[in-house]
Write a structure and sequence with these properties.
- It is a single chain.
- About 35% of the residues lie in helices and about 25% in strands.
- It has 11 helices and 10 strands.
- The radius of gyration is 19 Å and the shape is globular.
- Bound molecules: adenosine-5'-triphosphate (ATP).
- The site of adenosine-5'-triphosphate has 12 residues, from helix 1.
- It comes from Leifsonia tongyongensis.
């Protein structure tokens, strides 16, 4: 299987004599070509799980277990054993991450073109012209309107949804095997959310990406995730197909999580339906 296999992942913080146990032996497969949802209430450990896969766990963490990467180009038996320098080489190439706030990964004073071309020149060793061509291609791929013009603009000149598309363009630039998406649509309007979710689905299918989608929003899960893992207090309490987890939850905790939602839309066609209803193709206004 290509993708990520997490086995018995534990993470502790604080005084070793009375540690705060953040992750308590997580087992999770994130296969290529699938969106694996990681759900759970605030503080359950979803974000820390995603960060640990990328080697970005909180400073002072004590981590044990195994995170195996089977990438298209590279496999690593246990990411936890890599040095920071080795992880740096892997991040951006094999492992990519997008966050709730896309501005967190974009520099406010550097044009979008500058940021995209710097990224691909550094990781892929491309020349200036090739890097620019790839930057345009990437912006087209994530459907940022007028990609040539977009290159000379700065982050503040784009809407939130477009910035998330640009962050996704940077994330996929080196054709990674794994994408960790942490609450990528939480800050966006519902119709804009649908467009981003549809884009993630499309990239997952066309690039055979293994996507770990971290979100507290089971509505988002029901729209795109192939399987859903539910976290509670640092453990995965249930993992199954999105239909099974959302419609026929096996644990009391998942049931209560679902009951606390206003309404869960029917799983299979949500993204498609929203797209058709609103006629979203480029679902955001262009720029400001
Ligand atoms: N840098 C840190 N230092 C200390 N504790 C931390 C740090 N980062 C996370 N934690 C703790 O780890 C636990 C899990 O946090 P995490 O952010 O993974 O939860 P989450 O499920 O993603 O919740 P949310 O949806 O609110 O982000 C929480 O108790 C949190 O307080």
């Amino acid at each position: 299987m290509t993708g990520i296999t997490i086995s018995d992942l534990t993470l502790e913080l604080g005084d070793p004599k009375s540690p705060k146990r953040i992750l308590r032996g997580i087992d999770l497969e994130v296969p290529a070509g699938q969106i694996t949802g990681l759900a759970g209430e605030s503080g359950s450990g979803k974000t820390v799980t995603g960060l640990t896969v990328c080697g970005l766990q909180p400073a002072g963490s004590r981590v044990s277990g195994r995170i195996r990467l089977d990438g298209a180009r590279r496999s690593v038996d246990n990411l936890l054993e890599l040095s920071q320098a080795q992880l740096n080489r892997l991040r951006g190439r094999e492992l990519a991450m997008i966050f709730q706030d896309p501005t967190a990964s974009l520099h406010p004073m550097i044009s979008i073109g500058g940021q995209l071309t710097d990224h691909v020149r550094y990781h892929l060793g491309l020349g200036r012209r090739q890097a620019r061509e790839l930057a345009v291609e990437l912006l087209e791929r994530v459907r940022v309107p007028e990609p040539e013009n977009a290159l000379s603009k700065y982050p503040h000149q784009f809407s939130g949804g477009q910035l998330q598309r640009i962050a996704i363009a940077i994330a996929i630039a080196c054709e990674p095997s794994v994408l960790i998406a942490d609450e990528p649509t939480t800050a966006l309007d519902v119709t804009v959310q649908a467009g981003i979710l549809r884009l993630l689905r499309e990239l997952c299918d066309t690039m055979d990406l293994a996507i770990l989608l971290v979100t507290h929003d089971l509505g988002v899960m029901s729209a795109v995730a192939d399987t859903v893992a539910v976290m509670h207090n640092g453990s995965i309490v249930e993992h199954g197909s999105r239909y099974q987890v959302i419609r026929e939850p096996r644990t009391e905790y998942t049931r209560s999580l679902i009951e606390s939602l206003p309404a869960v839309p029917p799983p299979p066609q949500v993204v498609h339906e929203v797209a058709v209803e609103t006629g979203i193709e480029n679902d955001e206004e262009s720029g400001r």
